Amino acid sequence: MSGIFSDIGDRITSDESEGAFNEYIDEQLQDLIDGIITDGDLTEFGSQGSDLIVEMDDITPPSFIYGDDGQGGGGGGSGPGSGGGKMSFSLPFDKVMELIANRLELPNLRKEGKGKIKEVSYEFKTFGQLGIILDKKRTFRRALKTSVANGIYDPNEGKFEIQIRRRDKRYKLPERIEKPKYRAVVYYMGDISYSTYGERLELEKRIVKFIHNWLDYNYGHNNVEHRFFVHDMEAREVMPEDFYRVSNVGGTRAAIVFDLVNQITINEYDTASTNFYGFYFGDGELFADDAKQIVDLLEVMRPIFNRIGIVEVQPSRSSHLNSKVSARFKNDRIIRIDELKHNKETINVIKTLFGAVP
Amino acid sequence: MRMIHSDPELKYLEERCLHYADVFGMTLPECRFYILDSMEFASLLEKRVYPVSPINIWEGKRMLSKKYRIKEGMESSLYYEVVQTGRPSYAYLNNTNSAMTQATVIAHVYGHCEFSELNVLQDSTDDRTEYVMWMVKKVNRSRQQMGEKSYLNYWNAVESALPLIAPNSQYSLEHSVETDRRTGTRTKRKREEKAEAPKPLSPFSSTMDSLLRPTQKSSPFELELKTKLRQETLSRRGYRLRAPCQDVLGFLKEFAPTTKAEKNILEYQYIIHAPSDFVMRTQIMNEGWAMYWEKKIMMELFREKSCKGIIDYCKTFSGVCYPRPYYKRNPYHLGFHMWVYLEDAIKKGKISLEFQEETDQKVKQEWDRGDGSEPIHTMRHLVKTVTDYEFLRRFLTPELIHEFHLNRIHQREFVRLGISKREVIKEDSNWVWLDPRPIKKEMLSFFTHYYRPRIYVIDADFEDGGLLLYHRDDGRRLRSNWIQPTLKNLNMIWKGGVTLISRNTLYQYSGGRQREKRIRELAFETVVERMMEGKKPLIFE
């Protein structure tokens, strides 16, 4: 570059303005995230790890123009106004979770198993003169350079020969990359007795969806095993889609599901290298000795688990699980207890379950 | 981005084009050519054809969406010619174009540069690009001074005022505002000339004189008082509105209370957007002029064989100059054919009273009474004296409208628009030709409002220092849910109440509050009259 443009660099770009716009959108997304958490768009995440398509009102500076009133209110004065159109963005899953984490001030989950199990992969980033996988592009480029230098390739003279010599050859060299591999198992435990229906289920679904995504985000999609358990008078493991299927049995016993989960944890996994999470959802209406048994089981599970959450969904006056458990585990680092009465409380419950130590 | 001399082939073509421009006697500033890739081109256009711009979200937004559209194949990344005229002019070439296309672009750019140099609106200025680059530095410094948030807010507020630029309007800043440096606006002078009484026929007796001469309405005392009042206002505020001012952003730039940083933003935005007014007023002549010279120079290049691909050139040319119906304006087509027609008509002496008055069609058809002078002198004289409106008003006849197919509409379009069969004068299976006579009037009406609302500043001291704007009715309503947000943004620039009169409604934004009030409709003529008399334009009964 020369002349008066010398100080603008080699290229004309709008990079900085694009950055400014992205920052602006990030700010707007914070509002959107609030909406996602409170208004129940959590279920729109799609299946694990897929991108989220976000639509927001298009922005245009308002001015005196002719035309019909479009949708939207023209924005708030100095801020960009709304032109009635929509802008859509594709947000990567991780970005959404990161925004949510920032918004809710959630700490990253503590991971165990570091140094014990390694994920090994190979990357081909370096190149050498000896090897097995020939990098054709690089080799050709070197060969061409040599041929031009030797004068055997010269289009102006009509010479088009290219010789590939041994020293031109470039091979891809594998590099061993070791990353610590974490493994997590999540148990979702649900009360499907007759009294759990309608809105209760909806509230439960939203929380479960969030936990699912949050753990996937923290451990990586392929490293988390999600297992679903239900109970009425008896406890059993079900397919995810059956988790919300309410049975028509009236009575309910919750301790048996904790017991089942505990058994599975000890029998099926290496407890030293795996991270365990357990979440119980129910209305908290239990038989008298049920809560006591649960407290006893929690004592056993506590050292093994990274987190155990107990959420009473729309508890009634006769719900007493939480009070019993909290009498023993108040402000506990591992065992978190909360109740969910309304959509709006979802954020608080998430904060209780995953926030810093109370 | 690299300069043209890094490519010997292009450099040679540039030299040949320049040679022929010289042979044809073109008046050219220094033209500097740069070669860009397509993404740089897209970015350059977003910066309004300057190589740099201050950081702003709007450019970022448009650029991101453009990149996305180019990536998805919804938009082509090919741009042919882009030039920032001025002395020197900066023109940019797309590196993916063939040599022939590059030559076309260079020739075309020369056409634009000459037009910019010669035109009546005096578009060309010294060191325009350099000045803007300097302004960008100033604005970036302002951004640091103001802080990100206030900078963004102020910039956004100015965006709202961008369509309100009219430096070449009859009611421009120069014509409407009287300052201590600029007394006696042009509009005022016109009024005084009008007021001058005709001289009495027989000035024999003083009695007759006083009878014949219209009596002076205001006494000398009143006149004295008025002058004094005017001087006082001038000395207090530094300016006085003598007539409505259509250049609202220009007005704000000059007279709104601003910090230095804010002033930089206003000035930058004004300077980069002001030329669009020139483009709007001269587009047909300008593009036509560029096409005319492009073709002339290219024909020479093909003749001397410094450039190959005449068939391809013809294809591109006819694509660009393809006739479109009058309401879809193709300035390249109309402008080019108008200049070609004029060249021929001037050569044959058809632009004359005798030709117009000749009634015998046969004589008219065979008319060839040129005085042997070069028509290009007359054509250049036209560039120096008129804009599109006058150009079309004088030379575009119904016959030409028909000849240029400006009245030709596709059958499907004809049905869709629901035009009456009575207006059709000719049709075939594909096309319909409408009666060309009313078309000229419609084309000219474009130049009164350019399909945009006409907004004027009519009072800068409305209800204690508020800004009063007036929307001149063109029979269409403003988009109502944008009025208040726009007023809010203008309020941020003016730092006082801002009010808009549109039809019978007064929209007000002041002190963070919006107000709407019904008033009696106020005619534009009344406003002008009251302002000329030094009265308040809006008087509440």
Describe it.
The complex is a heterodimer of chains A (358) and B (541). Chain A is built from 8 helices and 13 strands. Chain A has 358 residues and is an alpha/beta fold. Chain A folds into 3 domains: 13-104, no CATH class; 118-178, no CATH class; 183-354, Rossmann fold (3-Layer(aba) Sandwich), CATH 3.40.50.410. In chain A, strands 10-9-8-11-12-13 form a 6-stranded mixed beta sheet, with helices on both faces. Chain A has a 3-stranded antiparallel beta sheet with strand order 3-7-4, with no helix packed on it. The N and C termini of chain A lie far apart (60 Å). Chain B has 541 residues and is of the alpha+beta class. Chain B is built from 24 helices and 14 strands. A 5-stranded mixed beta sheet of chain B has the order 10-11-12-13-14, sandwiched between helices. In chain B, strands 1-2-4-3 form a 4-stranded mixed beta sheet. The radius of gyration of chain B is 27 Å and the shape is globular. The termini of chain B are far apart. Chains A and B meet through α1 of A and β1, β2, α2, α3 and α5 of B.
Give a quick set of tags describing it.
heterodimer; A: about 350 residues; alpha/beta; Rossmann fold; 3 domains; 3-stranded antiparallel sheet; about 25% strand; elongated; B: about 550 residues; alpha+beta; 5-stranded mixed sheet; 4-stranded mixed sheet; about 55% helix; about 10% strand; globular
